[in-house]
Structure formats: structure tokens, C-alpha cells
Amino acid sequence: HHYESFLTGACKVKDNWLLTSISVRLERVETSRLTLLSLQLHLNIVCSVLYRHVMNELLETERAYVDELLCVLEGYAAEMDNPTMAHLIPSTLLSKKDILFGNMSEIYQFHKRTFLKDLEAYTDCPELVGRCFLERMKDLQIYEAYCQNKPRSESLWRQCSDCAFFQECQKKLEHKLGLDSYLLKPVQRITKYQLLLKELLKYSKGCDGCDDLQEALSSILGILKAVNDSMHLIAITGYEGNLSELGRLLMQGSFSVWTEHKKGHAKVKDLARFKPMQRHLFLHEKALLFCKRREENGEGYEKAPSYSFKHSLSMSAVGITENAKGDNKKFEIWCNSREEVFIVQAPTAEIKTAWVNEIRKVLTQQLQACRGTIKHRLSFLLLSFLLHISVTAYNHMFQKQVSRRAQTLFLRVPPATTPPSPSGWCQFHTTHT
After folding, report:
1. What is the pLDDT of residues 298-355, one digit of tens each?
2. What molecular function terms (GO) are annotated for this protein (predicted)?
């Protein structure tokens, strides 16, 4: 009895301890859950505040940008047509307003009339501003023309930057910075957009417009890449053909290159086989260009490199070997059954992989296009053959029908009979005989 009482009491104590322990743990879990919810709510509020802060920065800098462009166009570009300022303009600057300012007027009109208003329409719903960029992405490509003209613009500016005309304009505008700083504004602005989009994307995880922001960022980066590529393309010298006929520029970059070629049955390497050539490669849809990079003396855009054309390979005759010489940064490009082999070493393994994948993509697309062409031709030949058979069969059948018809008509015609001779003629003939 005492033993049973002891066990019963022990179980009650144990049950009470267990319930108390579970209750405490549940309270802790509930407290932790509430704490997490509180932290999540606080984080959402912070993200919302930061998001609106970035959106306000986007709007404020956009308005300031539009004002700065207008200031340059009215304070400098328009003054070049002012008769009272004509005596201050040097001869090197005459009739060269389009070179100096590029398409800045077109950029200003787009931002003033369209883009700024579009951005302001998303003030109350900043999380959806990515749609604005996506809708105007084609218009933003006008920056490519401005950037392509920038080297010519800066070269002209350096020739006459200290002339009285620019000094007088700067004085009237009360600008602390010279015109060259304002001519750089469009380049800085198109670059600034991708930074602002990255900030907006950082604070919009899980929001409705997150996917649009990501797509807008990718598109802006695509425009920046196109601008950068175009700046390199216009610096190529010595290419006799038309670069636009080579298709879209896909990639460009600097590599170390070794070459091999077959002479008869023997493989011959360049004399300087241990010392690679430094080449800048331009991968187009239809051709791969090898150029020699030349650094120019000067400052700013005048220091931009130029490229001397050396060699080209048609992508329709190119093959690729992904791994070469046991080096994860090397790959081979060859043509004419490996009669010409170019061993290419990239700066990093990642760059090599990117180039190999892009070249393979081009070759795959060409193969698919070739198969499509062959299939189309075979379909055309088959159709022509069937049409020829049909026409031949029809002609044969028609001829048989004509022959049968003619034969039927011939059988139905009665045989020709000789008319009886007149009796008088017969009698006269007999008598005479």
C-alpha cells in the first residue's frame, strides 16, 4: 500500500513537472514566434522606408538631370548660333555643334516629355517602377549613339576648351565646372540607373514588382554592354569589309593566342610559339575577328584603345575544342579540318567557360538553321517531284482518253460507197468500145 501510494505520488509529481515544463516551452516558442513576427514586421517597415528613399533619390536625380541637360543646351549649344557670340567661336568649332553635343537634344526631349513623367506616375507605388523601365527600354537605346560620338566630342573639346566662347558661357551660367563635366552627364546617368535598380531590388524581395525590377536591371545591363561593345567596335581599324554584315556582336575581350598550321603532312608552329600573341577577339554571329590592341596616348576618351585588324574566321567554318594542353583557361578554335588551329588562353577559367558556351551556342544555331534549310529544300524537291509525277500521269491519262475518243469516233463513221455509174454513160462507153 505504501509502495503504491509512493508510486502514485511520484507519478503526480512527474506529471505536474512535465506539464509545467511543456507549458514553459510553449510560452518560449510563442514568445519566439511573436519575436520573429515582430522582427519581420520591423524589417518590412525598414525595407519599405529604404525603398521609398531610393525611389525619391531616383526622382530627384532625374529632375536634376533634366535641368542640367536643358542648362547645357540653352547655355552652350544655343549660344553657338547667337550672332553676338560668333566672334568668340574659334574656327575649329564652327559648324561642329552636332559633334560636340551629339544627340543630347534628343536625350533631353525623351526625359523631359516622357521618362520623367512616367517615373512620377509610380510615386505612390514605387515597387512597380520596374515596369516603367521595361516599357521605355527601346527608347533608352538612344544612349548608344551618344556614347559612340563621345570620343569625337571630347577630342573636339580638348582642341578648344580654353577659348573665350566657353569661358563666357560658363561665366553667364555661373557654373563652377566646365562644359566637359556636363557632357559626361548622360554617360553617368545611364550607368546610375543600374545602381538604383539594384538598390530597389535589394529592398523588394517578395513584392509584386520584384520580377519586373529584375528584368529591368538585366535590360539596362544589356544596354550598357551594347554601349561598351559599340565603343570598342568603332575603334577597329584596317578591316576592309562592313562590320554590320557580321551580325550582332556577342562578346569581346583580350586573350593570349598561339597559332598552329599544317604544311603538307607536317604540323608547323609559329617561330615564337613559347611567346603568345596578345589579341583582342570580337565574336560576332557570323565571324570571329582577331585584332591587336593599341593603347593611345592622352587623357579621358582619347586614351581609349584602338584595334588593328589581323585575321578573321567565318563561324560557318569554325570548330572548337573545349580543353587544350591541360590548362583550364585554354581552348582551341580551328577551321579547315584543323589546318589552322588557334590556341586561346583566357584571363580566367570563368571567362573561358563563358566564351566556349557562347561559341557553342552560335555553332548550334547555325546547325539548326542548316538543317532547317536542308529540310526546306528536300520538301521543295519532293513537292516538285510529286508535281512532276502528277503532271506526267495526267498527260498520259489525257493522251489515252484522246486516243480512245478518236478511235471511237473513227469506228462510228460509215464506210464510203462509190456512187452508181449513170446507165447512159455506161451504154455510150460500151458502144464506143
Report:
1. 555 555 678 999 999 999 889 999 988 778 999 999 988 788 899 999 999 999 999 9
2. guanyl-nucleotide exchange factor activity
DSSP for 316-355 reads GGEEEES-BTTBTTEEEEEETTTTEEEEEE-SSHHHHHHH
Residues 91 and 205 in one domain: yes
179 and 267 inside one domain: no
Residues 326 and 201 in one domain: no
Whether residues 205 and 95 share a domain: the answer is yes
Range(s) of the domain holding residue 106:
61-233
Amino acid found at 288: L
| Residue range 38-90, pLDDT digits in tens | 655 655 665 667 778 889 999 999 999 999 999 999 999 999 999 999 999 99
Domains in the chain: how many in total? Answer: 2
| DSSP codes, 275-288 | SPEEEEEEEESSEE
* Spatial contact of 169 and 315, defined as CB atoms under 8 Å apart: no
238: left (phi over 0), alpha (psi -120 to 50) or beta: left
Buried b (16+ CB within 10 A) or exposed e, 223-262: bbebbebebbbbbbeebeeebeebeebbbbeebbbbbbee
